[in-house]
Amino acid sequence: MDAVKTRQVKAELESVGYSAEYLKTWQPKIDLYIHKPILNASGVESLPVGSMILNQPGHPDHVARKSRIGWLPWPPAVTCRCKACRERDWSDQNGHETPPKTDHPHQFGKAVGSTCKVEGCMAVRVTPYKSRRARH
User: Fold this and answer.
1) How many whole angstroms separate alpha carbon 33 and alpha carbon 122?
2) Is the pTM of this model over 0.85?
3) What pLDDT does 95 receive?
4) What is the DSSP code string of the chain?
């Protein structure tokens, strides 16, 4: 978003009632971790525990909604106090290991649900692919 569009959006939000102070401290994007397995319609696990959901809005209301379905800003662990981690059987950790934090640019396929092609990375594409031309 260019500077003119950003100013227009801020002016629109201020006219609706958002304070300028809130807009200055707008939360950045964050990565969320899956603490509860996501199942498809057939009951098959489509996203395993520990997978990262990248670039989610950091707004408190959004994070609160996602925490209700088991997406939290920290990786699942034995010491985590969420319901999914408290109820999990941690004696079998093979399917529930937290992926390592990576500092590389992710290389996804174009399909939603495709994993990163970099060895050892378990990040998953959660948004549809759009070519740069289609984004504008």
Assistant:
1) 11
2) no
3) 47
4) --HHHHHHHHHHHHHHT--HHHHHT---EEEEEESS-EE-TTS-EEE-TT-EEEEEE--HHHHHHHHTTTEESS---TT--SHHHHHS-TT--GGGPPPPP--S-----SSTTPBPSSTT---B--S----HHHH-
| Total count of domains within the chain | 1
Residue 34: pLDDT band with limits 50, 70, 90: very high
Q: 53 lies in which domain range?
A: 3-135
CA distance 76 to 80: 6
pLDDT tens digits for range 62-112: 888 888 888 988 889 888 888 888 888 877 654 445 545 567 677 777 776
> How high is the pLDDT of residue 121?
76
